């Protein structure tokens, strides 16, 4: 699954600037996470059209990059996040960061995470019977 | 006390000394310094054309750039075996400005510093805490030697470590402080915070300040913090000219007396390069008289000031220069260190993840200068993780630290967020009003 990362300054309204530009371009945001320091932050998003999002934002002067991340379906029950993280921990997969979907009409919740070892993560999760979500299924 | 009789000569006598030394200096520099001889030849002036002091204006200028073009020792007039000391200060780009001294030059230099120390009230009884940074800068060793010459006892404290500074001030019974004025204010406030009153708990009664200008607002603040009887003066010098010792304030506080038997000052319009009449404000140009290792003729200091020739109440007849009123170029003085925007530019251009545009903001926080440089991030590969951005920030800081010798703050912003300028960019914002 693809994620776009955008560099934003830490000042009022800077996140909104990105999201409103995407809305204007009719790009839908599925998941969002921001990581910030006192001066600047990285806004991470899963959108329905990452190429278009990158093109639009770059044209408007943002620094944007597309990354490959992993999206996995969670069972809609108690302890599901913990269960997922323990599968990864047992498989020695180091998770850089996680976040989850904002909207997913009627479907199971999705957790997004980044790791430096995508292949191994895929293998372990498949073996454990976890459903991996692809861009097409968004 | 007045240290040297040359400080009190009638102007006629002083001018006779100046003319004789000037003739010798011009002949000496023409014979020994090839770049300067080239300039004189191109200007069509020969040493024998210098017959009066006003012939000085026929000579070509020397610029900071000449040091860079002839780095490191191309402007020196003596063989290396004659040299006994080197110092270095900021250059306009990565290479420092290197200066050298013969034995006689040191003698002359420290003699001039001794005069300035006496002007500011120092005497053999003083115990001096010297809080300039030691190292290649001329400030610390210059004041150190000059104060020892008059018989004062010097503690070579160097800068920083405020706690230790306070302990020495108190335990050693220090009577005289040498520092940049902003550091003296900072130190004074720290002393007050520690529960001591500098006026009653310490013996410091004299401040000799330099390395950066001291405004009248700073002097008033100095009295508020260090006590109403604190005698604080400032002095002026540039490493290219020798270091401190070019000029200093006497206790009348009406400008800095220039040691005119060693330095001839002129004031010019920095744009037209015409010499301006006495009393008008312009760029200070200095000709050094009798220097052996590094003679300089008509050196463009970049400092803006005015000159007053009336004899002073203190008994000295030497000309006084007004407190500096800015720069003819865009040099900044940050914590007493000269910084050229071109130096900063050189570092930023060597880092490919950021764009070529930048802004410099200078503020005074807690009495100390803080410089923040804003740069635009252009490389999307760094968005991978916060640690990569943070690493970039650290790398820019480290590059600037090694180039400038100063810590800086970095602010990363999105591309195109800095203002674009046509022609000369106004990249510097200096918010240090009145130096406070
Ligand atoms: Zn005077």
Automatic annotation (TrEMBL), chain A:
Domain named ACT: residues:
3-72
List the SUPFAM superfamilies hit by this protein, alphabetically. ACT-like
The superkingdom listed in its UniProt entry is Bacteria
InterPro entries in the cross-refs: ACT-like_dom_sf, ACT_dom, ACT_dom_pair
Stated name of the protein: ACT domain-containing protein
UniProtKB/TrEMBL annotation, chain B:
Q: Which residues form the AMP-dependent synthetase/ligase domain?
A: 78-286
Cite the GO molecular-function annotations of the record: ligase activity
Q: Which InterPro entries match?
A: Adenylate-forming_Reductase, AMP-bd_C_sf, AMP-dep_Lig_C, AMP-dep_synth/lig_dom, ANL_N_sf, PA_CoA_ligase
Which of UniProt's keywords are assigned here?
Answer: Ligase, Nucleotide-binding
| SUPFAM superfamilies, per database record | Acetyl-CoA synthetase-like
**Cited Pfam families:** AMP-binding (PF00501), AMP-binding_C_2 (PF14535)
Xref: PANTHER family: PHENYLACETATE-COENZYME A LIGASE
Could you tell me what this protein is called? Answer: Phenylacetate-coenzyme A ligase
């Amino acid at each position: 699954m693809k994620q776009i990362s955008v560099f934003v300054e830490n000042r009022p309204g800077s996140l909104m600037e990105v999201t409103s530009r995407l809305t204007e371009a009719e790009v839908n945001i599925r998941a969002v996470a921001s990581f910030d320091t006192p001066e600047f932050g990285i806004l991470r998003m899963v959108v329905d059209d990452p190429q278009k999002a990158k093109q639009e934002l770059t044209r408007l002067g943002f620094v944007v990059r597309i990354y490959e991340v992993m999206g996995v379906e969670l069972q809609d029950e108690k302890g599901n996040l913990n269960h997922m993280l323990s599968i990864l921990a047992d498989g020695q997969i180091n998770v850089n960061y996680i976040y989850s979907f904002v909207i997913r009409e009627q479907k199971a919740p999705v957790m997004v995470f980044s790791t430096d070892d995508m292949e191994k993560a895929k293998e372990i999760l498949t073996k454990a019977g976890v459903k991996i979500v692809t861009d097409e299924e968004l | 006390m007045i240290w040297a009789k040359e400080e009190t000569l009638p102007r006629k006598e002083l001018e006779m000394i100046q003319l004789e030394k000037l003739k010798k200096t011009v002949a000496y520099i023409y014979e020994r310094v090839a770049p300067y001889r080239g300039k004189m030849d191109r200007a069509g002036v020969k040493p024998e054309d210098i017959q009066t002091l006003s012939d000085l204006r026929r000579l070509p200028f020397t610029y900071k750039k000449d040091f860079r073009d002839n780095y490191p020792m191309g402007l020196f007039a003596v063989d290396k075996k004659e040299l006994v000391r080197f110092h270095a200060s900021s250059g306009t780009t990565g290479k420092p400005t290197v200066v050298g001294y013969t034995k006689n030059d040191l003698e002359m230099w420290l003699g001039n510093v001794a005069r300035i120390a006496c002007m500011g009230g120092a005497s053999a009884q003083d115990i001096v805490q010297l809080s300039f940074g030691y190292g290649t800068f001329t400030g610390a060793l210059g004041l150190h030697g000059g104060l020892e010459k008059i018989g004062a006892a010097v503690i070579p404290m160097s800068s920083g470590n405020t706690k230790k500074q306070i302990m020495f001030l108190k335990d050693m019974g220090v009577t005289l402080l040498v520092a940049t004025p902003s550091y003296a204010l900072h130190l004074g406030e720290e002393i007050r915070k520690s529960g001591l009153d500098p006026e009653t708990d310490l013996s410091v009664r004299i401040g000799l300040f330099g390395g950066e200008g001291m405004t009248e607002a700073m002097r008033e603040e100095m009295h508020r913090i260090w006590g109403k009887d604190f005698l604080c003066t400032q002095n002026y010098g540039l490493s290219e000219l020798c270091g401190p010792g070019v000029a200093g304030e006497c206790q009348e506080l009406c400008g800095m007396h220039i040691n005119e038997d060693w330095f001839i000052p002129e004031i010019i319009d920095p744009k037209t390069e015409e010499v301006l009449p006495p009393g008008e404000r312009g760029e200070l140009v200095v000709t050094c008289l009798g220097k052996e290792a590094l003679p300089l003729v008509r050196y463009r200091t970049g400092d803006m000031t005015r000159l007053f020739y009336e004899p002073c109440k203190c008994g000295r007849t030497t000309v006084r220069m007004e407190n500096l009123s800015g720069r003819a170029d865009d040099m900044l003085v940050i914590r007493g260190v000269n910084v050229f925007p071109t130096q900063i530019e050189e570092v930023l251009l060597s880092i490919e993840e950021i764009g070529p545009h930048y802004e410099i903001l200078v503020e005074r926080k807690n009495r100390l200068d803080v410089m923040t440089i804003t740069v635009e991030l252009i490389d999307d590969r760094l968005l991978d993780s916060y640690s990569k951005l943070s690493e970039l920030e650290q790398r820019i800081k480290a590059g600037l630290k090694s180039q400038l010798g100063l810590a800086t703050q970095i602010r990363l912003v999105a591309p195109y967020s800095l203002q674009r300028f046509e022609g000369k960019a106004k990249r510097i914002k200096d918010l240090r009003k009145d130096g406070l």
